[in-house]
Amino acid sequence: MSLKTRFLSLAAGLIIIAACASWLAYRELSADLIERWGRQVAEIQVRYDSARLLQSLEREIGLARQMADSTALINWSAAPDNKALKDNAIREMESFRANFRDKSYFVALRASGRYYYNNADNEFAGEQFRYVLDPEKPDDAWFYQLIEEGRDFHLNVNPDTELGVTKLWIDVLMRDPAGEIVGMVGTGLNLDTFLQDIVDINQNGITTLFVDYGGAIQLYRDRNYIDFASVIKPEGQKNTVDLLFENPEDKQKILGMLQLLKKNAGQPGHVESGFVTVEGREHLAGVAFLPAIGWFEITLLDLNTLLPQSYLWPLVAVFIASLLITLIVFHLIIQSRIVKPIMGLEEAVEKVRSGSFALPRLDKPDNEIGRLADHFEKMTDSLRHSTQELENKVAQRTDELHRLARIDPLTGLRNRRGLDELLLEEIERAARQGTGFGVIWLDIDHFKSINDQLGHQAGDEILCRVALWLKASVRPYDHPGRWGGDEFVILLSPCSPTTLEQIATRMRETVEQESRKTGTPVTISIGGYFSEPGDDSDTILRNADQALYRAKSQGRNRVCINGPEAIETNRV
Ligand SMILES: Nc1nc2c(ncn2[C@@H]2O[C@H](COP(=O)(O)OP(=O)(O)OP(=O)(O)O)[C@@H](O)[C@H]2O)c(=O)[nH]1
After folding, report:
1. Which atom of ligand 1 is nearest to 449's Cα?
2. How many Cβ atoms sit within 10 Å of the Cβ of residue 429?
3. Quick count: other Cβ atoms within 10 Å of Cβ 561?
4. Distances (CA, A) of 167 to 162, 185, 188, 194
5. What average pLDDT does the segment 305-319 reach?
6. Domain of life here (predicted)?
7. What is the bridge-based pairing of β-strands 559-562 and 524-531?
8. Element (H, E) at 267
């Protein structure tokens, strides 16, 4: 896998891990935020709804209490048949009716069970006495139950079958100065209107309900759940708040909250909250106790409606966009700062490995890779220099070896190999140009006996001297060489038969005369041959050798020339 792919895979992997972690963190955080926010909202909503309920009830309750304390009514309750007291009481009732919001009231006397009522239409003017309560009648049981409980104040949602109305009743016990319960007074509020005003306020995602001290539902937008006349129902038959929840844990949770609030009833404004499921949707329930009326107020917030998580999706979109931009920027930086320079470097290394020093232009970012590329370039440069130097030296040495291989080490003249190559070149040139050239083959006379008499060392010195004399005798462009032993071959080019003879003679004379000066006189015998175009080397050498042989056999120290016009030169 290439470095680029690795980097990208690594970056993508890291980003996916970061994205997953961020997504989980986001979900946790958003859930936590929504929960915190929901709890705050639930508390505020509970207080707000409680305040609204109490606000609309407080005045009515106050009036009902005043009515229960009315001397006219209390006195009359002791003598309900006393006309004067009764008229006075009816007047008092009617004055309260004018003040009650519902413009209705009821008064029930304990001793006689008489029930008085009038409504907003003043329908029962002069006939406020409606009927007599019967302890045996289930519809009247509420009255006897409340008296038995002895609670001075009670709210009760109850349909009045006699009157044909369903109301939220405010019931206040009427006591005589001795504290004895003599009756009950109160007013009712039209349940439908009240529900609309307080509970069914059409706030999307917010459900409000009120339950009594025992958890029985008193005010709820769905009337089917309201526990009408709960005061007279035995426990177990009441529509309690847990009916709203399907999950047993939620039922326990709500009931637990109610218990907790009962315990902490001394802390006004305390709100309990927790998550519950209603109709398959998760809600945050806020519960508060309203000591003024002895009820609990429950607010259910559908957080998904109030603050759907989709509200936070733009945040997710920004996050994903940021991740993508980060990936692209990361890719570009890695590409330009690492991958591209390394790929360039790899290409350069490959070139150097294959023997080429022509490097491509290397990217040098301002980092370790840039410095590495710079070092590599310098290293390649010095490698190129030293390789060049080495190659030059090898070439020089090769030339030198080539030259040495063609030089006779003793005399410094060409050796046999050098003479062979030169001879071939001359043959080719002669063939090209159609001209001939001269070849001289000479041998020192009686060299064996010189060696024998004077020693091998002295023989070498004579060989060197003869070489020098030969060099001195030829033209600058002639080529003298040592064929081997005491034999020398000289190629003369350009040349003519006459020149050949002249140079050969001059050689012989020079050696004879110069050697005499050294005290060790030597002579040489010379065979010459003037080569014609088309002669091969064997022919040429054989002819020169034959001429030498003749010179030797004719007495030595002489020149014999082989060729078309053979010239015989005798010793001088
Ligand atoms: N000092 C010395 N002697 C050499 C060298 N190479 C060959 N010789 C000797 O040279 C002698 C050559 O003798 P030849 O050419 O055969 O005979 P020659 O004595 O010269 O007699 P002719 O040629 O017939 O006049 C031999 O004794 C070789 O040992 C050398 O490099 N140095």
Report:
1. 19
2. 14
3. 26
4. 13, 14, 5, 9
5. 78
6. Bacteria
7. parallel
8. none
pTM of structure: 0.55
* Phi, psi angles (nearest 5°) of residue 220: -155, 150
Do 544 and 462 belong together in one domain? yes
Do 517 and 428 lie in one domain? The reply is yes
Please give the Cα distance from 169 to 102 (Å, whole number).
11
Do 50 and 290 form a contact (C-beta atoms < 8 A)? Answer: yes
Longest dimension (CA), the chain: 202
Take residue 60 and report the two structure tokens written for it: 């009515």
Average pLDDT over residues 169-191: 93
- CATH code, 502: 3.30.70.270
In sequence order, the β-bridge partners of residue 271 are: 288
Q: How many domains does the chain have?
A: 4
Dump pLDDT digits (tens) for 382-439.
999 999 999 999 999 999 999 999 999 999 999 999 999 999 999 999 999 999 999 9
Question: Which residues form ligand 1's pocket by a CB distance below 6 Å?
Answer: 443-449, 451, 456, 459-460, 463, 485-486, 552, 556
d(CA 257, CA 296) in angstroms, rounded, equals: 10
Nearest to 41 by CA among 314, 300, 291: 300
Sheet holding 295-301, edge to edge: 217-219, 206-211, 295-301, 281-290, 271-278
* Interatomic CA distance for residues 508 and 229, integer angstroms: 163
Angle at 109 between CA 106 and CA 113, to 5 degrees: 105
What does DSSP say about strands 479-484 and 487-492: parallel, antiparallel, or unpaired? antiparallel
Instruction: Please state the atom number of ligand 1 nearest to the C-alpha of residue 457.
Output: 1
In a domain, residue 330? The reply is: no
Q: How far is CA 389 from CA 359, 378, 384, 395, 402, in A?
A: 19, 16, 8, 10, 19
Which residue's CA is minimally distant from atom 26 of ligand 1?
Answer: 448
Residue 288 to residue 270: CA distance in whole angstroms: 6
Distance from residue 450's CA to the centre of ligand 1 (Å): 8
The residue whose C-alpha atom lies closest to atom 12 belonging to ligand 1 is: 448
- Looking up residue 220, the CATH number of its domain turns out to be 3.30.450.20
Angle of the 3-68 helix axis to the 340-353 helix axis, nearest 10: 170
